[in-house]
What we know:
8-stranded parallel sheet, about 260 residues, alpha/beta
Amino acid sequence: MIxxxxxxxxxxxxxxxxxxxxxxxxxxxxxxxxxAGPHEALSLAEAxxxxxxxxIDLGAVxxxxxxxxxxEAVERERLFPALKDILxxxxxxxxxxxxxxxxxxxxxxxxxxxxxxxxxxxxxGMAASVAEYDGSLIIMASRKRPGDLLYLNEIIALLGERxxxxxxxxxxxxxxxxxxxxxxxxxxxxxxxxxxxxxxxTRLRTLGRPVVAALSRKSFIGDRLHKPxxxxxxxxxxxxTAIAVYLxxxxxxxx
Length: 255
């Protein structure tokens, strides 16, 4: 049995599939339907909670290919007013999508419950920051750039290594979840790579940690359905998500 916890939300084989709603505070994000200004985030979070979201994933830096570099100061300026607004007014678990350990530590100290690190702990201080505040941690498979691993064998090996690093830094093992990094994060990654990772998702069970499926409106869906506009990819997203859940995903991260 795979069991874990994200904030105060239990996740794993014995639980319902958990829904993580995405709120992007970065206007550069590829799906504009999830973009909110700092003072719009609360209303979007409230709507997601009413629609069944178990948790909110709040991010201020787009990781879509071609997105500009965003300074730590700008990330803070975008993130913390929205985070405070949600925490002060809504009783829901909040995850922070960041690659910076300083941002992570400050967000957890403010009341966020989880850090979603798409860079796979590229910041050497990230795991220690999460451990200091006894936070939950989602580790996405990444080596040099977010989502740059193409094959499941290397994804599983790297995630196993990063889980061990997090545990050695003091992160509670029950609070670690993993994400295989599906999506066209790098030019070399094709829809065939993403489909193969999705098809083999059950193999991630060897890591013994809850699995996050972050498939929402991604380019491999658009490629297969000939839908270049992410707004037209809902049906494909639902189908891909159903497959991921059937193959063992415990948390669905979705717009």
